[in-house]
Write a structure and sequence with these properties.
Belongs to the SIMIBI class G3E GTPase family. ZNG1 subfamily. With 349 residues, the protein is an alpha/beta fold. The protein contains ten helices and 13 strands. It folds into two domains: 4-197, P-loop containing nucleotide triphosphate hydrolases (Rossmann fold), CATH 3.40.50.300; 254-347, 2-Layer Sandwich (Hypothetical Protein Yjia, Chain: A,domain 2). The protein has helices at residues 17-26, 45-49, 74-86, 105-114, 116-121, 136-142, 144-152, 166-179, 267-281, 337-346, and strands spanning 4-11, 33-37, 58-60, 66-69, 94-98, 122-132, 155-159, 185-188, 254-261, 285-293, 299-306, 309-317, 326-333. The strands form two sheets. It has an eight-stranded mixed beta sheet with strand order 3-4-2-5-1-6-7-8, sandwiched between helices. Strands 9-13-10-11-12 form a five-stranded antiparallel beta sheet. The radius of gyration is 21 Å and the shape is globular. The chain starts with a strand and ends with a helix. Residues 40-55 and 213-248 have low confidence and may be disordered.
Length: 349
């Protein structure tokens, strides 16, 4: 049986998760979706879509979608649903997990890798994060959970953009891009998002091509050149201006940086270094991902991780004439960039 795709929907309180979910659940897209609610009492979809006083944990909606709230832990709920599906008691194509607005999506994502039973039934497709254009800046300033949700995202939806002026939305978009350059951003109003922008994004697929916004590689803090080949990602392109007064005012603890090199890695050295880094900084590493040129193989090595969990796959062969450049992006909380960049430099063959 094919794996069931799973999507994690996150975002701070009031960012519009329920509105987006409601739209996804009620739209006639022909998909049967099981929604798992991390019940936290403050914004349950049930209030809006479902009848409150039902004793049932799992409710079927009239368009074939299924809703359930987590009464035990996520793992149990996921294995229950998969079993009911295998037995033919429930029919659904995919799962969406709505986290509470205060949740760190990391442990939810880890469930899909750490638990064998869950890993055998599900494929984590992506983490979607909603950021509220009106209150987002303040939430990012004050709440680490909001910053972590941005750091984990595979796709970011900026909601309520109609409530603020264009410049405010631009500022927020720019800030979020600095925190997480690998997540594409879209603006959404009233949850109006095409299903194709929500599902089957393959954000967690190791073989997906490494999405780092190409402009990001040319844009960041001015003037921090150290002459290393990999450090060219810190000067603005000539065509790009960054004279917004607010852009660099935020010293967010969630930051990202990129390592690039045209020299191949020594596999043993790299494995030792990454192993050590993950031991020390695991809890602060939100997401990391890369396409690597390894000595001894003509295939790309694709790696990624969440917190302490790291995995790698052999990807396709480098195409004839393709430049064999390793690219890695790290997103985390107060990571010592110099330690990472120098350490990686020392792992090159």
């Amino acid at each position: 049986m094919a794996l069931i795709p799973a999507t994690i929907l996150t975002g701070f309180l009031g960012s519009g998760k329920t509105t987006l979910l409601k739209r996804v659940l009620t739209e006639a897209h022909g998909q049967k979706i099981a929604v798992i609610e991390n019940e936290f009492g403050d914004e349950n979809i049930d209030n809006e879509i479902l009848v409150q006083d039902t004793k049932e944990q799992i409710i079927q909606l009239n368009n074939g979608c299924v809703c359930c709230t987590i009464r035990e832990d996520l793992r149990t709920t996921l294995t229950d649903l998969a079993e009911k599906r295998r037995k033919g008691e429930l029919d659904f194509d995919r799962v969406v997990i709505e986290t509470t607005g205060l949740a760190d999506p990391g442990p939810v994502a880890q469930t899909f890798f750490m638990d064998d039973e869950v890993a055998e039934s599900y494929l984590l497709d992506s983490i979607l994060t909603l950021v509220d254009a009106k209150h987002g800046q303040g939430q990012l300033d004050e709440r680490q959970e909001a910053r972590r949700q941005v750091g984990f995202a595979d796709q970011i939806f900026i909601s309520k953009a109609d409530l603020v002026n264009d410049e405010e939305v631009e500022d927020l978009a720019h800030r979020v891009k600095h925190m997480n350059p690998r997540a594409p951003q879209r603006r959404v109003n009233f949850g109006e998002v095409a299903i194709s922008e929500v599902f089957d994004l393959r954000g967690f697929n190791l073989n997906a091509k490494l999405e780092i916004d190409p402009d990001f590689l040319n844009a960041d803090d001015h003037g921090h050149h150290h002459g290393h080949a990999h450090d060219h990602d810190h000067d603005h392109d000539h065509g790009e201006h960054c004279d917004h007064p607010h852009h660099h005012a935020h010293d967010d603890d969630v930051k990202s940086f990129v390592f690039r090199s045209d020299r191949p890695f020594n596999p043993a050295k790299l494995e030792d270094f990454l192993g050590a880094i993950v031991q020390v900084y695991g809890p602060k590493l939100l997401r990391y991902k890369g396409v690597l040129n390894m000595k001894g193989t003509d295939k790309k090595v694709i790696f990624q991780g969440v917190h302490q969990l790291m995995g790698s796959d052999l990807g396709p062969k480098w195409a004839p004439g393709e430049k064999k450049t390793s690219k890695m992006v790290f997103i985390g909380i107060d990571l010592p960039k110099d330690v990472f960049l120098q350490g990686l430099e020392q792992c090159l063959a």
